[in-house]
Amino acid sequence: MMNYLCFVFLLLGYSASSFSLNTMPKSFSSPTQIQSTPSTSGVELSRNSDVKASKEWELDCYSRPVVAVGGKKLWEVMITDSSGSFRFLKTLPSNQVNSKELRKTIEDLIEESDVKPSTIRFFRGAMFNMINIAVSDLDVVGKPSRCTYTVAQWLEERHRDVYPKMEGYKSTMAGGLTGPSFLDVRTPIKLPDALRGEKYAFVALPLAEFLPGGSVTEENVGVGKLCPVDPTLPADAFVQGVVVLTQRPESLASWLAGTEVAGLSCDLRKRNLIMETDIDTQYLMAKLNDVQREEGAAFMEGKDALNGLHFVCVQRDEDDDPAGFWLIRELPTGI
Fold first, then answer.
1. Handedness of CA 84, 235, 6, 267 (dihedral sign)
2. SS3 of 64, please?
3. Which residues pair with 310 in a beta bridge?
4. Is 22 exposed, middle or buried (0-12, 13-18, 19+ CB in 10 A)?
5. pLDDT tens for residues 7-51?
6. What is the phi-psi region of residue 160: left when phi exceeds 0, alpha when psi lies from -120 to 50, beta otherwise?
7. Which residues on adjacent β-strands are paired with residue 274?
8. Which of 28, 68, 116, 301 is deepest in the core (most CB within 10 A)?
């Protein structure tokens, strides 16, 4: 039986009230850590038979905070799938960092994989052109996206446990895993009128609802998706989120599903509620008045406390089922 979860929230531009979300998203099991064994060829491939392989792959190709012999940066290709059923790591000489070599690497991995990818996501804006060219001639859909949670978790592990122990490690090249890495001068795009919600609300859900036994499952998120939940987070914490109420929930949810929604944020100085999509696109969802600005500050504080974990929900009204529910974790910068 479906649980009914009650929230007390502030409608942006309306008076405070409460309502029930009829559904919330499949419980998430803690990911099994995969142990890799280094290879003398510069290639490592490890598999996790405890999880089902996915057709959605995630890729990163970038330099690491390690200077190899000869003063050259360490370059790596990292490929996994959204379920973490395998991890592929290849070291590239700096003179082989190009789309041709990357395409061949992906092709070889696809050839020996039982489950072929239908989608390959990549989040690295600085490498967009090279990666996009590499996957363009393959029989897969390349998606610039920050919904690359599995490869991001792997990168965090390597930045924490692997690179600092390597000869030639340079901490000044690591950049750090949190905090802004550049001056953000982007201007949010106004949402098309047909996709704007009539009401927006800051809400919160117990983190326990997303853990095994909770009422938020992949079976009841509509066209939405759930990111992995870090099992070390306190189960009694609350996950901050935004509910969008609209008379066109299916249209808005379908549009969001195609944008690779990556997160929500409040620009408290400009009083804007902003949606992040793909690699670097921003949409202006709503303006905040004084009271809403305070709610936005609490939203941001709660999101930061859970390492960027938050959600967005789209539905018709207070009593309707969500047309789409996305549990999102913002990627750390510096990885």
1. negative
2. strand
3. 240, 328
4. middle
5. 433 334 333 333 333 333 333 333 444 444 444 358 999 999 999
6. alpha
7. 265, 284
8. 28
* Beta strands 189-190; 199-206: pairing state: unpaired
What are residue 254's phi and psi, to 5 degrees? Answer: -65, -40
Choose among 212, 254, 251: nearest CA to 235: 212
Alpha-carbon distances of 146 from 149, 241, 259, 314, 329, rounded to whole Å: 8, 18, 11, 20, 9
Let me know: does 139 contact 76? Beta carbons within 8 Å: no
3-state DSSP helix/strand/coil % of the chain, to nearest 5? 25, 35, 40
Read off the pLDDT of residues 133-151 as tens digits, 9 standing for 90 and up. Answer: 999 989 999 999 999 999 9
The answer to whether 245 and 200 are in contact (CB under 8 A) is yes
For residue 200 the two structure tokens come to: 């927006």
Strand-pair category, 86-92 with 43-47? antiparallel
